[in-house]
Amino acid sequence: MKRRSQEEWQRLIQQQLDSGLKASQFCKEHGLCEKYFSTVKYKLKQKTASPNSFQRV
After folding, report:
1. For 1-57, what is the HEC assignment?
2. Do 32 and 41 touch, CB atoms closer than 8 A?
3. Which candidate among 9, 22, 44, 53 keeps its CA 20 to 30 Å from the CA of 37?
4. Would you state the pLDDT for residue 47?
5. Using CA atoms, how far apart are residues 26 and 33, in angstroms rounded to an integer?
């Protein structure tokens, strides 16, 4: 398996979103492990989520 940087994973995830393909199809076409792709996608989403996503009223 090729070692990828966080930036490379972010680009791949964005490509998958832009393509309109399901993750499984995208991974198959790009030779990626679907389980690992989903794990990285989830972790990056958690990492970029703002801890203060709620607004005060």
Report:
1. CCCCCHHHHHHHHHHHHHHCCCHHHHHHHHCCCHHHHHHHHHHHHHHHCCCCCCCCC
2. no
3. 53
4. 82
5. 10
Q: How far apart are CA 13 and CA 56, in angstroms?
A: 32
- Return contacts of 28-33, CB within 8 angstroms, 24+ apart: 33/1
Confidence (pTM): 0.77
The position carrying tokens 């801890």 is 51
| Other Cβ atoms within 10 Å of 10 Cβ, number | 15
Gap between the Cα atoms of 22 and 48, Å rounded: 22
